[in-house]
């Protein structure tokens, strides 16, 4: 599992998720907390024959939080709901 925090410049535009929607295995996450904080969130779950990975990104004014987790040999990956909860806790702790 990995968690990355990247600063977002003040005044940066909200990312256009149109390209994300076109990518196989990716979807936008609708979440009232993210939306009320002026952000967007999405998850991508590319898979191979032997392993899978879930990468979830939560973009908020001021910070982008990316969380990734692998799925190998039947062990579950970190799903989007768990990754979103990690992002919420990190942001709420920082406030």
From TrEMBL:
State the source organism's domain of life.
Answer: Bacteria
- For this entry, the protein name equals DUF3558 domain-containing protein
- Per the UniProt entry, what species is this protein from, by scientific name? Leucobacter insecticola
């Amino acid at each position: 599992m990995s968690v990355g925090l990247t600063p977002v410049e003040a005044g940066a535009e909200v990312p256009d998720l149109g390209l994300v929607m076109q990518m196989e295995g990716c979807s936008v996450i609708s979440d009232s907390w993210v939306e009320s904080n002026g952000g967007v969130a999405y998850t991508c779950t590319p898979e191979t024959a032997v392993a899978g990975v879930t990468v979830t990104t939560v973009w908020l004014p001021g910070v982008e939080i990316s969380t990734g987790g692998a799925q190998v040999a039947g062990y579950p990956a970190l799903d989007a709901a768990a990754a979103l909860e990690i992002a919420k806790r990190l942001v709420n702790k920082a406030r």
